[in-house]
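Appendix C: a fully annotated inverse folding record. The material below is reproduced so that readers can follow the format used throughout the book. The structure is listed first as tokens, followed by the designed sequence.
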């Protein structure tokens, strides 16, 4: 796969290391991971290469990025990354086309999607994750959030305003609202990790 196919996200390049550090402390040596909204594929390649006992299934709602996902994984020699699949969290079945997933995942990972997707995608993510997550598995979400009694950084306030100017359906989500959708799906927040650039890595599991 030619490196020319690789799309590059500066943010993904910066945050891969801090996210990986948390994943390495959270995850066992082996497992199966499903990534939602894989984007450029930089996270899939980085994490799969560093977690050789894991299989990694990248997905995205836009097939235009599939060549980039495959290219990043090939360049990282991450042979434990499956071919990307089309998956829209609002679909009734995952993935959106082809055979449905027939085995649960030990990790479902979703970074930087909720603030650049319609709000209905939050419920879709939580419902789908609850259905496809193993009983002791983890849903990990990453990105900016608004929190009660936690001042929002000027950078995130400006980012939120720019998102809403681009699309009124976008915007940084309130963690309390996300948690309500998770609870409705049967998931609960079990860990909160503050990461650089005013982002949070959140860990969810089955249970009220």
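Designed amino acids, in order:
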């Amino acid at each position: 796969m030619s490196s020319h196919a690789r799309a590059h996200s500066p943010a993904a390049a910066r945050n891969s290391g801090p996210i990986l550090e948390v994943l390495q402390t959270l995850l066992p040596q082996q497992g199966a991971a499903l990534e939602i909204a894989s984007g450029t594929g930089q996270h899939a390649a980085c994490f799969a290469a560093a977690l050789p006992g894991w299989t990694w299934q990248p997905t995205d709602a836009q097939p235009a990025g599939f060549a980039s996902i495959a290219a990043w994984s090939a360049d990282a020699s991450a042979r434990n990354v499956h071919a990307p699949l089309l998956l829209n969290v609002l679909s009734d079945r995952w993935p959106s086309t082809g055979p449905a997933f027939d085995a649960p995942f030990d990790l479902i990972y979703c970074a930087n999607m909720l603030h650049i997707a319609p709000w209905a995608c939050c419920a879709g993510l939580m419902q789908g994750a609850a259905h496809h997550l193993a009983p002791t598995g983890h849903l990990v979400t990453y990105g900016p959030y608004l929190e009660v009694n936690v001042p929002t950084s000027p950078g995130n306030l400006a980012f939120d305003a720019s998102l809403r100017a681009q699309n009124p359906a976008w915007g940084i989500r309130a963690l309390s609202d996300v948690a309500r959708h998770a609870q409705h799906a049967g998931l609960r927040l079990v860990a909160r990790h503050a990461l650089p650039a005013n982002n949070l890595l959140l860990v969810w599991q089955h249970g009220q």
